[in-house]
Amino acid sequence: MKSYLFEIVAKDCAGRIGRLETPHGVIETPAILPVVNPFRQNVPPGELAEIGAEGLITNSYIIHRNMELRSAALEVGVHGFLGFNGPIMTDSGSYQLSQYGSLDVSSREIVEFQAAIGSDIGVPLDIPTPPDVTFSRAAGELDVTLERLREAACVERGEMLLAGTVQGSTFQELRRRAGEEASKLGFDLYPLGAVVPLMESYRYRDLVWVIVASKQGLPPAAPVHLFGAGHPMMFALAVALGCDLFDSAAYALYAKDGRYMTDRGTYHIQDLRYLPCSCPICSTHTVGELASDEGLIARHNLYVSFEEMRLVKQCTAVNHSDWIERLDRMPKSTFFYSGPESARRSEIRRFERYQTRFDLKGKVLIKEKNDTIENFSDFDYVMDFKPPFGAYPALLRETYPFNAEVTVWDHEAVLVALENVTRLIQCNPDANFTFKKPTWIPEKLIKELKKYAHNLTVQLPDNSSTTPTDSCDYE
Ligand code: GUN
Ligand code: ZN
Q1: What distance lies between CA 78 and its chain's CA centroid?
Q2: Sign of dihedral through CA atoms 85, 87, 92, 93?
Q3: For residue 347, what pLDDT is reported?
Q4: Closest CA to 167 of 95, 83, 96
Q5: Is residue 338 pLDDT above 90, yes or no?
Q6: What DSSP state is assigned to residue 440?
Q7: Strand order of the sheet with strand 31-36?
Q8: 260 and 301 in contact (C-beta within 8 Å)?
Q9: Quick one: pLDDT at residue 401?
């Protein structure tokens, strides 16, 4: 069995641009897979790539349930059946399960069927537990879903990638557990299920918690699909939270009702006098033509959706920290140090590099900023010590980024700061450093520092503070 790969190429917030390899090509994420109904299409699948789709999703249960469709799909494969040669993901009928209560096919059978028709990404028959049910129902249904995932992981599936859907209703604890258990089994993609009711009722706070809790249970680098999220309005939020794939039925369903999407909201086509869009459809048709052809509205809706996703990707790409470092040198307002991740922020990284430019000679004093000293004139340079930076010229203390609000002085921050001080001392062998060590730095770390920095004297501060402080009220 070939193993496929998800590679992350850029990151911003929890969002990322990635490449998901499938047997029918690479999907660059974040990406929208238009939903193709095997029975009823207002845009032929063959046209989707031209409009911007890198893949599509269809429902294997609907194909399986109909004898004619089933044999056609088995004969020519799902790509030939739909007339689309890119990556095709197949859903399992879980939505129908949630509507009808039971299906005439087992999870194992539907996974085997998906593999047999040559799907690129298959999905077992998870149970989409709606929001706000009792904990025991959500937990019981999650157990069934996990059992089906376990079973699916053992099914012979050839080249097909397999998705492990995360359920758990609106219980964060269950979502997290679902993520952990699914990732132990090792899937190629992790869809988050049963979020449609949250989006339909605009419960974005709950949606965010579901995404965050599920992702907490999953490895950070695993690709995540947000099932049923097809409205461009929420792409930016979901991508920022680390969702990589989306499926859109909205483009077609909206078109059926004459609803025309824009980046600011949806118009009913009957209410439009002008077409406020320059996509290939809107620039070559009239309002009247769109009003009488849902296929044209569906195409326009797709163009708008792909455009929004490209904008989201562009924002993700340009916020890549390398780019920030190169271009974003303007002083900004304070940043907050709020835990170990912040110790690796781009500001700290940049300072690590910039401090090698200090050319210090003579006597250098490194002290905490609120450690006042009498004998300034004994020193050629006075530097402030502040985790996670290390030592910087005291004159810069109120300027960005050294004015950072440090809310947590954790071990990581102190370590990074001491590493930087060590480097500073090593880079300036002609200077003699005096470090008025804050009392709250463990002796063990100071010993390390002394080992690597020979031109250093360590003193206890004159009026040492016993706890780290970062307030401005001492001056
Ligand atoms: N489509 C929308 N929601 C879901 C879900 O929870 N599971 C599956 N398999 N498909 C979906
Ligand atoms: Zn348009």
Answers
A1: 30
A2: negative
A3: 77
A4: 95
A5: no
A6: T
A7: 161-162, 121-122, 88-91, 56-59, 31-36, 245-248, 224-226, 190-192
A8: yes
A9: 84
- What are the CA-CA distances from residue 433 to residues 21, 46, 190, 348, 389 (Å)? 54, 70, 53, 22, 17
CA of 323 from ligand 2 middle (Å) equals: 32
Q: Mutation test of ligand 1: which of 35, 99, 126 has the most ligand atoms closer than 8 Å to its C-beta?
A: 126
CA distance between the termini of the chain: 67
Which residues have C-beta within 8 Å of that of residue 416, sequence separation ≥ 6? 343, 344, 348, 387, 388, 390
Best residue among 142, 165, 189 to mutate for probing ligand 1, ranked by most atoms within 8 Å of CB: 165
pTM, two decimals, is 0.70
Q: Is 388 in the pocket of ligand 1 (CB under 6 A)?
A: no
- Sequence letter at residue 267: Y
The answer to whether residues 261 and 308 touch, using CB atoms and an 8 Å cutoff, is no
Could you please report the per-residue DSSP string of 354-394? HGGG----EEEEEEETT---S-GGG-SEEEEEETTTEEEEG
Which of 127-131, 198-202, 418-422 comes out lowest in average pLDDT? 418-422
Provide the 8-state DSSP code for 106: -
CA distance 352 to 315: 26
Helical pair 411-427 and 346-354, crossing angle rounded to 10 deg: 20
The verdict on whether 91 is a catalytic residue reads yes
pLDDT in tens, 121-142: 999 999 999 999 999 999 999 9
pLDDT tens-digit profile of 35-59?
A: 999 998 999 999 999 999 999 999 9
Provide the pLDDT for residue 388: 85
Ligand located closest to 126 CA: 1
* Average pLDDT along the chain: 88
Contact 90, 123 (CB under 8 A): yes
Provide the greatest CA pair distance for the chain.
92
Report the alpha-carbon angle 207-307-262, nearest 5: 75
For the ranges 192-196, 357-361, 432-436, the maximum mean pLDDT occurs at 192-196
Catalytic residue (choose from 12, 91, 188, 247)? 91
Q: What is the DSSP letter of 472?
A: S
What are the Cα distances from residue 279, in Å, to 297, 337, 427?
A: 11, 44, 57
Contacts 24+ apart (CB under 8 A), 396-403: 397/369, 399/331, 400/331, 400/332, 400/333, 400/334, 401/332, 401/335, 401/347, 401/351, 403/334
pLDDT band at 455 (very low <50, low <70, confident <90, very high): confident
**∠ at Cα 453 (406, 469), nearest 5°?**
20
